[in-house]
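Q: For a teaching handout, I want to show students what a protein-ligand complex looks like in token form. Below are the inputs, and the small molecule is magnesium ion. Please produce the holo structure.
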Amino acid sequence: MTENVTTDPDLSIVVPVYNEGNNLPKLYDRLLSVLQQMQVNYELIFVNDGSLDDSLRFIKELAASNTSVNYISLSRNFGHQVAVSAGLDVAVGKAVVVMDADLQDPPELIPQLYAKMQEGFEVVYGRRVYRKGESYLKKMTAKFFYRLLSKITHVNIPLDTGDFRIMDAKIVRVLKQMPERNKFLRGQVAWVGFRQTWINYTRDERHGGATGYTYRKMLRFAFDGITSFSDFPLKMASMLGFIVSGGAFIVMIYALLARLIFKDYVEGWASIILSVLFLGGVQLICLGIAGEYLARVFNNVQGRPLYVVDESSKESGTEATEK
Ligand code: UDP
Ligand code: MG
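A: Here is the structure, written as tokens, with magnesium ion included.
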């Protein structure tokens, strides 16, 4: 095993882990051979996000046998974005790679990311030109979501990218200072700026196990992405309000004319019930949209720690608990 204990590593690799016991041995093998070829000082940071399988046991064994392997174990499942944030909080490398544990992000791409960064970029992200083995629904919803997001935000969030990327320590420093709780890291990284570029890659099939992203988690994630980078839904709510009240105003004038001047009025049950239902629906939608933002404000003012660390091989991990 290579010993790189002293000075800051050139490269930190942050891997969030949720029930990846079957994939970790393979991931570690592939990572290790790539890193040894690169001849850089590295640290591997595994963040155990409340796995229910033997992932943690395996990670601890690795950490015991290789001093370049570190781990943080969270007290329960906090979700992918929070797990990555926890890893970034302790990463000290001059460059930091974020990648999934299920081998969908091929470790062999890291040298390319690293080389591209040396050309003078602060962020190089992997852009998935092709996604193997993911359901049609997932691909379609993802595609739609990224297009919608780029339409309604002011930040240039790159299309079709995940969190597989390499970042300069500068960027990581800014990310650590961003206090929002509903993390949408790929948007936050885009927001930070500097020189960012991408390389294309084919996203592989999951090596083993099942995805930890249920449709429910994906929907939450999509909401977080939109609400933290766009106030378009709020504006849409008020726009809808104006349009509907404009329409209602015209109908009102018509009703008054009919009643007082033309004396031509009938029971009008249908129109009343329709407008009541329609207005009720629009109002509920708008209320819901305002509620989504309010929920986020609430979440943030509560000021709870973003995650709780159960155990960790890194000293700074305890500081992170205070975050
Ligand atoms: N993950 C996590 N916490 C979760 C869900 C997922 O740390 O609650 C990790 C998971 O172990 C993997 C990465 O996040 O390393 C991506 O998750 P997954 O492969 O399930 O997502 P997908 O590739 O299907 O979008
Ligand atoms: Mg995956």
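A: Two things your students might notice: Residues 308 and 321 are 6 Å apart (CA to CA). The pocket of uridine-5'-diphosphate (ligand 1) is lined by residues 16-18, 20, 49, 77, 79-80, 83, 100-102, 104, 211-213 (CB under 6 Å).
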